[in-house]
Amino acid sequence: MALKIVFMSLSIQLWQSHQDLAQASLNHPFVQGIGDGTLPRAKFAYYVGQDAFFLEAFARAYSIAAAKAPSWHSFRILHELAAGVLAELKLHEGYAEIWGVTLSQVQPGTATRQYTDFLLATAWGQPIGVTAVAMSPCMRLYAYLGQSLAQAGLPDHAYRDWIATYSSDEFEPLAQQLEALVDEHAQDSELIRQTYRYAMVCERDFFQSAWAHTAY
Question: Which of 14, 34, 202, 209 could pair with 159 as two cysteines, CB 3.0-4.6 Å apart?
Fold first, then answer.
C-alpha cells in the first residue's frame, strides 16, 4: 500500500512548533480575565493604549514590507492587511473613549517598545519573507485566542467586543493572508524560526506587562 505524504506549509509548521507559547498566552490570567470578564478595568485600559501604539507600528511594518514586495499581488495584499490594521485602530479608538484612555498621551512600556522596535527593524532590514514571519504570530495568535474564548458563545460582559472581533469570520482570513505571504516568500531556516519565536515571546510578554501594570 502506498504511503500518503502529507505536506505541511511553513506557516503551519511554525505555528504548531510554538504551541507552548500559544498556550502560555491563552492560559495567561490577562487573557483568561478577558474571557470570563473578571479582568480589572485599569489593566485593560492600559492594554488598549499600549496595543494602539503597537498597531501603529504594525501598520508601518506592513507598508515597509509592501515597498519591498517583488510582485504586485504581494504589494496589494500587504496594503489590504495594513487597511485591516487601520480598521482595528478605529476599534481601539472606541475602546479608548469607553475606558477613558487618551491615545495621544500614551507612552510605550518596555514590552511594547521591545516588540515594535523588533518589528520595524525587521521590516527595514530584512526581506519581505522574514517580515511576514515576524508579523504572522500576532495575527494567528489573536485569531486563536478569540476563537478559543468564543467556543462557548460570546459572553455578556465588558470584553465581549474584543472576543467578537478576534473570533470573527472577518479576522481569520487576515491571518491566513499573512500566512500565505510567509509560505510564498520565506524558507525554513534558523533565522526564520528564531524570528517567529521571538515574536511569540513578545506576545506573551505584552500580556504580562498589561497584567502587571498598576495604575498610579
Answer: 34
Q: What is the CATH number of the domain that holds 78?
A: 1.20.910.10
Distance CA 53, CA 213 (A): 16
Q: What is the pLDDT of residues 14-36, one digit of tens each?
A: 999 999 999 999 999 999 999 99
Instruction: Name the grid cell of 22.
Output: 500559544
- Confirm whether 3 is domain-assigned: no
Q: 3-class DSSP state for residue 146? A: helix
Could you tell me if residue 5 is inside a domain? Answer: no
- DSSP structure string for 152-211: T---SSTTHHHHHHHTSTTHHHHHHHHHHHHHHH----HHHHHHHHHHHHHHHHHHHHHH
Which of 170, 206, 174 has the alpha carbon at shortest distance from 62? 174
CA distance 171 to 168: 5
In a domain, 6, yes or no: no
Q: What mean pLDDT is predicted for residues 73-100?
A: 86
The answer to whether position 102 is within a domain reads yes
The amino acid occupying position 55 is: L
Cell of 157: 460582559
Residue 50, number of CB atoms within 10 A of its CB: 24
pLDDT digits (tens, 9 = 90+) for 52-71: 999 999 999 999 999 999 99
Range of the domain at 18: 11-31+41-212
Instruction: Spell 57-83 as b/e; 16+ CB within 10 A means b.
Output: bbbbbbebbbebbeeeebbebbeebbe
